[in-house]
Write a structure and sequence with these properties.
single chain; disordered N terminus; globular; 44% strand; mainly beta; five-stranded antiparallel sheet
Length: 352
Amino acid sequence: MNRQASNSWNHFGVRGSDGVLEALPLRTCIYRSDWLEKTGFDFRRNPTDGKQLFRVEWCTLNLKRGEFSETLSTMPPEARKYGASVACGNRIYVLGGECSGDIFCPDGKFNNVHFHNCVFYFDSARPNCGWKRGPAMLVSRETPSAVAAGGKIYVFGSTRLSEGYFAEVFSVELDRWDLLPEPPVATGLFPESLSDHVLLDASRSRILVHFKSNNSLQAFHFHTDGGSWECVDPEFGVWSQASVIVGDFDFGVDWAEQCIIAFGAYHLVHKKWFPVKWLSEPGLIAAPFSHLFHLGNGRLCLFSHFDGMDCLEYLTIRVHLDSASGEIHAIAEPESVIAVPFPHFSCQVLEL
């Protein structure tokens, strides 16, 4: 992936020539009550709160400088808040979402809180074409988990109980959605208890999925014909709200008492947890919306933000396995906690 000019659609240029992650692509939501006047919206017929109207914009956050790029692209007003964002090939896909039935609702359901199955995509090979509407998902989903692998997008969970259909897959080549097999039936395991985050374990051609109902770790193998499920660890424990795979380890960050960072490391081959020892104070608390990224060379980035707050923060952490003690050592890099002013309502980091 090559670096590109700052005024271009550059989410594929977030890694430098050395492979180190340099910038994070962000989808932001900005309230736009002025759209009411432009569209001649009539409150007497549709008393939707004007604050539900928002504009969805894309930008990148330069991790070294702590600066946002200019707006790279603005989505059509039919795009919903929440939903899932994922990069696949030359495209960004935005999947589903929730709305309260504003005047731009793709379904035209005014004043009715509901989920969406709408799909929008942006092709970086044809930037002048802007955002396009893609084939809708088979099921309406609010904030599904989505990962891309092998020219396909795999989507899990976040649907109404009555609709069922836990997971589905989209083939970019065929431009078609298909249902995935249901997870295995097991005592206390319910598809609706899927944790918010799933992980692509690319080296093993599988996607890791955790179920809160019994704290088991399951894997969906996408290299087999039609796909298949495997129970990786029936007693995995509590899944982290922010995690990333580095080599054979699943590193995860979560809240502890008083919002202090709790850091875990699970070995995917030995199927056991390794103790983590902080060699320095983290200097950052975990937030309700946190993301963990592998920058490269044993360095992780913990990104935290609160919806509705006026700033976001991130921290750089070095991790390595100490062979003598059998511990994972974590070190917060000096002066690496960066707070960036953030005037928008919410943001979502693109799944890379």
